[in-house]
Amino acid sequence: MQEDFHYYATYCAALLAGYEHSDCLEICYAAQLVDHCSVTWLKKSGGPSSAATTQLQAELLQARTDPIGICDITRIWAAFHFLPRDLYANVDKGWKSYRDKYRLICGPNGELLVDTVKLAKGQGTEAAGIAMHVLADTWAHTYFAGTPSLVINNTNWYFYELFPVDGAEPERKQIVFSHNPSASEDVDKPVYVGSVYQSNEHSIMNLGHGRAGHLPDYSYIRYVYLPAWGDYKEIIKDNPHDYEYAFAQMVYALSYLKGDIDVFEKDTYEFDKIQPHLEKIRRIISKRQVDASEDWKTFGESLSGEEIPDFDMDKYISQYVHSQDKSDTYLGRFFNGALSQKKMVAEKIKESGNKLAGM
Fold first, then answer.
1. 3 state DSSP class of 163
2. Is residue 176 predicted with pLDDT exceeding 90?
3. Taking the CA of residue 301 as centre, how many other CA atoms within 13 Å lie in the half-sphere pointing to its CB?
4. Spatial separation of the C-alpha atoms in residues 83 and 345, rounded to whole Å
5. Long-range contact list for 94-101, CB < 8 A, 24+ apart?
6. What is the H or E stretch that residue 168 is in?
7. Overall average pLDDT of the 309-316 stretch
8. Which of 65, 108, 258, 287 is the most exposed place for a label (fewest CB within 10 A)?
9. Is the pTM of this model over 0.70?
């Protein structure tokens, strides 16, 4: 997902869960900061490099892809952007290395999601925002894994967008992936920008949904493709449905973190709280646009009557740098939450016997 959902939609979800405007801003800020907290930015902010929650393209291009480097990459991307759905998934074919990658495939409503939300309980708005980023991405990034893998994450010519047709099967239009990073995407043709094919299984180009570019992050899109890990059978991804459920699950999770619900359970959603606004939410999600920030912002401000400021990744740096007690600052709490999430997920992966996050 992108800033439109991680920042503005998360603000809306927090508001519907009952948080005050100021707390909503802190929650959605942390959710969006997960996409910016790289080692490069941490050097600028003075934070610990071990708290990185993402990697810039320039960092990835210089990253090692030997076993140690793969573990470093996996610990970040599996913990924050491609949370594995089932670390013990039954895989009855292939080598152990293939099985380990298969078990890192992302998806919603896994045990690690429960662990993620419970870990944020009582840890403040910063940890809540981190958990909401992770939760939302389980829906957008379903079927991709947070480790470099051609067999898991590749796309090929069989990749179609599904356009709804009243009373008939959806119309299929073949998607063309451009490999020019500076090119503009054309959602009408449709042409999207993705990473260049690399036959090396461990190439950084094969990390997450890089081969499909930002396409999986767009809320309006429905698509079908043939992943190698699925025996080349059609996989259909319906983002409008999934984003609606992601939003409803965020409201439920935030209600739990706020203390209004005693137990957080998988596959549970707060549709009652969003029902009065559901048609408006569906219009935003299904609108064919690559950035829905303005629509979510307008919706959020109509709910609260307050202004939602633009996201500024450097907003809290001065407070952190000049504080005597850095642990009692917004960024200090964010870094602690990030370190806790990364440690928890890495340990769960290791406990499953999977070495891709290290020993």
1. strand
2. no
3. 11
4. 8
5. 98/151, 100/354, 100/355, 100/356, 101/145, 101/147, 101/149, 101/151, 101/152, 101/356
6. strand 168-174
7. 96
8. 287
9. yes
Phi-psi region of 174 (alpha: psi -120 to 50; beta: other; left: phi over 0): beta
Strands 222-225 and 159-165: antiparallel
How confident is the prediction for the chain on average, in pLDDT? 93
- Which residue in the block uniquely carries the two structure tokens 């967008």? 161
Dihedral pair phi/psi, residue 329, rounded to 5°: -120, 165
Report d(CA 281, CA 266) in Å as an integer.
22
**pLDDT digits 0-9 by tens, 209-241:** 888 889 999 999 999 999 888 888 899 999 999
222 DSSP assignment? E
H or E element in which residue 281 lies: helix 278-286
Task: List, in order, residues 6 or more apart from 86 with CB less than 8 Å away.
Answer: 103, 107, 110, 111
C-alpha span between 195 and 180 (Å, rounded): 8
Q: How far apart are CA 357 and CA 328, in angstroms?
A: 30
Residues in the chain: 359
Residue 137: its H or E element = helix 124-140
Q: What is the mean pLDDT of residues 40-58?
A: 95
Residues 292-314 have a mean pLDDT of: 97
pLDDT digits (tens, 9 = 90+) for 138-161: 999 999 999 999 989 988 888 999
